[in-house]
DNA sequence: CCACATTTCTAAAACGTTTTCGATAATTTT
DNA sequence: AAAATTATCGAAAACGTTTTAGAAATGTGG
């Protein structure tokens, strides 16, 4: 490594012929420094390529201009799901525009699993959580959002009344997806759900049930499978389910990845999609439009979700007003080919 | 925000009845502290829920246990390309296993565009660059890798002899892709290249030329287009190129995204792929296998690349030995349908 | 029991900032 | 011109660690 000369605030104070405190004030826009000397100091600083040391500054101000992101769990690091990459991109854009960088928590050598501890240790100003499954204890989760600005994206497990979160309009969107299937003439519809703990997952089942009820169809728990948001798991469950006859003609999946697994399985069993079985997914990830058949699915506005979460977090950091914020992002059904056309008789 | 009591090293020194320095040494595994007192201190620290302040520590040690990642450029934040999300995932896994977190540089409010400056400001221990196009000046790039452990992934623009990088076996893989087209009977093959500055992009053209030469085919610069790795741009160029006859029966693209744009354009022009025109891509992103027609493409081992880069960087950080490291990751041609079958006479 | 080596501990400096408070200089008021 | 006010600056403390240099305690050999 070639050596690099790093100048500190003392060096530029010396060069400018003023005190360290005056330099600091000039740099941070304090009012008690003459505009002429401020300009002079700024010039010297620029000439000498001065960079404030973020550690020293953070030590005093307790701010790092960094927001943290927790992704998924240990085994499945979250980036597996293409859903996440657009989320993080929008977070990056919003936070970046406001002068923040992004820290992704990765270190697995910590001697703690406390979110609060980890956040404090790294000195992030706030944190966004994008969790899947049931990877946190209640104590852990409460501790975090009680001590630090926190926003959950589509992943609150139990609803505290003081948790900030962004979610998709899950119930409504699922309702419409299932209603569409019903209008196409389906009466026995399988629900491939995610899990039973996440609010998002629960709500997608809820919308399914509401649509059935509204149209006088029976809700049958045998028609609800739990694919854990895994393509592989959905494949297995589908293969087992459809290997015996049951009169089911349509499937509503809680994610596109699972929908792919479902369709793969149906094809392997000799069914045609959508002629024999109609399938609707959830997410509208990039692959879905190019899939064969192109997937009918619920479009989640990932960019808007990330954007909203980031803005929400920056607000929380700025104001510290203790107000709890929620946002529900609209979703719409994108009708492609996998849901098929109206059934004859 | 509920208040959280944060204890510092002084508090636990008082509670343990020893000096601050002894606590520090006990915590950091120094040898000059009796094992009995060390144990006692560790217990007190755990009981009091002590967390070291990373700012204060970093101020002295100049380490942050964080590696930085620069992604793409300002406009196109990098996550657009699905190629990147797998890269970052593997980096996260490797770095995380070794006790590092990941900082993604996002802040656009900085008053500098110097990589070195930005890295120093955040105190990262090393940095991985995944750049596209020509978004850095030579001065900027040199300054960075001279002052900080740095690994480039498939994105060195000019070859310094002291730059660490990981790249795909671009020349070789491209050679085989084009040779495959030649063996299928194609003689006029269009090259949709990326740009002319990145080494990766250059090498993919080089492999194309080598294959032509080996089989006695003429290299014609009119058959090399520059799609800048953009699906849209590739679409435009393809549409213009194929609107006049030229006897071209195959296209070799430097990315899958561009290949999609190419195929879209060909379809719009009324060509059939692969019957009329064969197309081969590069990257093997997830969409490619589900695309219609499934894309023949060069599979880049993204996971291996990210993994290798991360390991390389951690080595550089650890050893500081000044040794320059390179890694070339094998790639293989994945033959699907878009390249078609052997041409009849 | 003394001289010396070794083990174990501590005081204090250092890291590079920000911020408080008081000092000085400049300006205004009386 | 003196007094009061205001604008501008600087000294020093503080942030929470690590590390150096040395002091105290303990052990060892004669």
UniProtKB/TrEMBL annotation, chains A, B:
**UniProt key word Transcription:** yes
Q: Which UniProt keywords are given for this protein, alphabetically ordered?
A: DNA-binding, Transcription, Transcription regulation
Which GO molecular function entries does the Swiss-Prot or TrEMBL record give?
Answer: DNA-binding transcription factor activity; transcription cis-regulatory region binding
Where does the source fall among the domains of life?
A: Bacteria
Instruction: Cite the HTH lacI-type domain residue spans from the record.
Output: 7-61
Q: Which InterPro entries match?
A: HTH_LacI, LacI/GalR-like_sensor, Lambda_DNA-bd_dom_sf, Peripla_BP_I
Q: Which Pfam family is one of this chain's hits? A: Peripla_BP_3
Q: Which Gene3D superfamilies match?
A: 3.40.50.2300, lambda repressor-like DNA-binding domains
**What is this protein called in UniProt?**
LacI family transcriptional regulator
Identify the species of origin.
Paenibacillus rhizophilus
Classification from the root reads: Bacteria, Bacillati, Bacillota, Bacilli, Bacillales
């Amino acid at each position: 490594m070639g050596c690099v000369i790093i100048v500190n605030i003392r060096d530029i104070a010396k060069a400018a012929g003023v005190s360290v405190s005056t330099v600091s004030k000039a740099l941070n826009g304090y009012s008690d420094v003459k505009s002429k000397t401020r300009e002079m100091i700024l010039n010297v600083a620029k000439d000498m390529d001065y960079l404030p040391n973020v550690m020293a500054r953070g030590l005093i101000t307790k701010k790092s201009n960094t927001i943290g992101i927790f992704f998924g769990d240990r085994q499945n690091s979250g980036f597996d799901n293409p859903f996440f990459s657009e989320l993080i991109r929008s977070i990056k854009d919003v936070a970046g525009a406001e002068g923040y960088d992004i820290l992704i928590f990765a270190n697995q050598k910590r001697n703690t699993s406390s979110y609060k501890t980890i956040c404090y240790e790294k000195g992030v100003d706030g944190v966004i959580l994008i969790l899947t499954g049931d990877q946190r204890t209640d104590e852990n989760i409460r501790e975090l959002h009680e001590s630090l600005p926190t926003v959950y994206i589509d992943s609150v497990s139990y609803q505290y009344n003081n948790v900030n979160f962004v979610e998709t309009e899950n119930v409504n969107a699922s309702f419409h997806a299932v209603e569409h299937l019903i209008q196409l003439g389906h009466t026995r519809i399988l629900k491939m759900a995610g899990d039973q703990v996440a609010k998002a997952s629960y709500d997608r089942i809820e919308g399914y049930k509401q649509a059935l009820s509204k149209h006088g169809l029976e809700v049958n728990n045998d028609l609800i499978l739990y694919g854990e948001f895994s393509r592989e798991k959905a494949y297995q469950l589908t293969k087992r389910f459809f290997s015996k006859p049951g009169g089911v003609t349509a499937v509503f999946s809680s994610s596109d990845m699972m929908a792919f697994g479902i369709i793969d399985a149906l094809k392997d069993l000799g069914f045609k999609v959508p002629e024999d079985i109609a399938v609707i997914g959830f997410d509208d990830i990039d692959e879905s439009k190019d899939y064969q058949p192109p997937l009918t699915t619920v479009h989640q506005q990932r960019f808007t979700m990330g954007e909203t979460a980031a803005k929400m977090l920056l607000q929380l950091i700025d104001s510290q007003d203790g107000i709890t914020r929620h946002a529900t992002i609209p979703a719409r059904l994108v009708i492609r080919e996998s849901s098929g056309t109206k059934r004859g008789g």
